[in-house]
Structure formats: C-alpha cells, structure tokens
Design a protein that fits this description.
Blueprint lengths: L1 H23 L2 E9 L14 H12 L2 E7 L3 E6 L11 E7 L5 E5 L4 E8 L2 E8 L6 E9 L2 E13 L4 E4 L14 E11 L17 E6 L3 E10 L14 E3 L1 H23 L5 E7 L2
Parallel strand pairs: 4-15, 7-14
Antiparallel strand pairs: 1-2, 1-13, 2-3, 3-5, 5-6, 6-7, 8-9, 9-11, 10-15, 11-12, 12-13
Length: 283
C-alpha cells in the first residue's frame, strides 16, 4: 500500500512539474529575410550607374531582421529597428509596400491575432481571427542549425504586382488603373517538432512545430538563432494602442490610400526633369 501511495505521489508530482514547465516554457527566435529582386531597368531612362545604385538600395531594403518571442499559446513578432537604406543621388524612389506589421501578436489557443501597424502616419490595431492554413505535410527533411526540420507546403492567390515599376512617362498612365492580375503561389515551410509550438514568422502558423524557414518564391525568411527559456525572456504582451479595426476594413483603407498616393505621385512627376521611380511590392 505504501509503495502504491509513493508511486501515485511521484506521478502527481511529475504531472504538476510537466504542467508548470509547459506554462513557463518560452523561446526567442531570430529570423532574417531576403527578397529576390528580378527587375529590368531601361538604361535610356537612367544615368550611368544609377540602376546599380538602385538595385543595391533595394537589396538592403529587403534584408531585415525579426524577433519572435513565443510560448505554447502566444507569440509576438517584431522587426528589429535598422537604418533606412540611402537613396541613389538624383533619384526619387517611392516604396509602396503592403502586408507588413510593426507588432504582430498571435494567440494560437484562442485562434486570433492583433496587428499593431502604423500606416500613412496613423496607428491601427487590427484585430481578427487567425485563418486556418491548409498545409500539406511532407516526409522530406533537412537540418537548420541543430534542428531537424520537415517540409510542408500550401498555396494561395496574390496580386501579380510584385516588383512592378512605374517611370514618370505617359505609357504607364494608360495601365495604371487596370485591375491587377491574380496568380497562385506555392509557399514552402520547414518546421521542427523538436520545438512543439504551432507558431512561426509573420502570419505563418498551424504546423506541429516551430516554423524555422518560409519561402514564397520571392521572399525567404529563415531562422538564424534560437534561445529556449532565456534568462531574461521578454514578456509577451498583447498590443492595445491604435484605432481598432478588422483586417477586411484595414485592407480597404490601404487599397484606397495607395491608389491616392500613386495618383499623387504620377501628378507630381508630370513634366518634371530627372528620374523618378515607384516600386510597389505586394504583401
């Protein structure tokens, strides 16, 4: 009887310890992003060497570092602050980007997210449900650092506006208001069951392990460092400052604002000497 009591007592102690460990478990992952730039520039519209300077600027613009703090149920994803890449001398480059976030909070247990985003000098607090991602799990593996990762893929439709360029000439004005074409892209993710959390960089989640790498054909985000249960772990706090809005409403506002900005950009550059380039990158 005493032995049975001891076994039960030990089992209860181990169970409680496992629950506490699960509750206290936290990690920090550092990600680096790179975007493939496939742009052909007309040398007749640019001074010698200007194209090379602009391509170098774009390369640096899309090399970013992000920090993901996570536990079993929640995560916070932030971009590390960095100095803006200098613009080529004599050229006005306007970057029109969509789909980003300043602070992205995800609650996997409650299936919701909060995206605190400053756009067009206004702070938004986008609150909505997490979309279920239909992943196809594969058997292919590879190592990323010390972790064995498994391959998973999914597809989605996006606007075919990546790397779209407009110069300050009349021929672009005729196509500026056309509806963008849609295309289907394949997203490949690599996740590790060795870290059993269902989160990853950006909007990616829903796999049986931490996502260490994502590639959508144009952009690659890969984990460069992982610290589990760090001594000075950052507290995961849901952002609460900004104009509360749904994802659908935010997308409509951004679409309207970007059209207004593009029209203003074209109007300001009619008849202006020198080179002006607008680059629109879809999110």
């Amino acid at each position: 009887m005493n032995s049975l009591i001891k076994i039960i007592a030990v089992s209860i102690t181990l169970l409680i310890a496992m629950q506490v460990s699960s509750q206290d478990f936290q990690g920090e992952a550092t990600y680096k992003s790179k975007r493939k730039i496939d742009i052909k520039l007309d040398s007749t519209q640019m001074a010698s060497g200007m194209a090379d300077q602009m391509m170098e600027m774009l390369k640096k613009q899309f090399e970013k570092t992000y920090i993901l703090n996570f536990n079993k149920e929640e995560s916070i994803y932030k971009e590390e602050e960095a100095l803006a890449a200098p613009q080529p001398q004599g050229m006005n480059v306007v970057m029109v980007m969509s789909g980003g976030s300043d602070v992205l909070y995800k609650n996997i247990k409650e299936k919701r997210f909060v995206n605190q985003n400053e756009s067009f000098s206004k702070l938004f607090l986008i609150k909505d449900d997490l979309n279920d991602i239909e992943w196809t799990l594969g058997s292919e593996t590879k190592n990323i650092g010390d972790y064995t990762c498994f391959k998973a893929t999914t597809t989605r439709e996006v606007e075919d506006v990546e790397s779209a360029i407009s110069f300050n000439d009349d021929k672009d004005l005729s196509t500026a208001d056309q509806e963008p074409k849609m295309k289907e892209i394949t997203i490949t993710a690599w996740y590790t069951p060795q870290i059993p959390v269902s989160v990853g960089p950006g909007n990616y989640h829903g796999l049986p392990g931490l996502i260490l790498e994502v590639n959508d054909g144009t952009e690659t985000v890969i984990c460069s460092k992982i610290v589990l249960n760090p001594k000075s772990a950052s507290k995961i706090v849901e952002p609460d400052n900004g104009k509360e809005i749904s994802q659908e409403a935010y997308d409509k506002i951004m679409e309207k604002k970007m059209k207004e900005m593009e029209e203003r950009f074209r109007s300001n550059n009619r008849g202006r000497d020198g080179e002006s380039v607008e680059i629109r990158i879809g999110g």
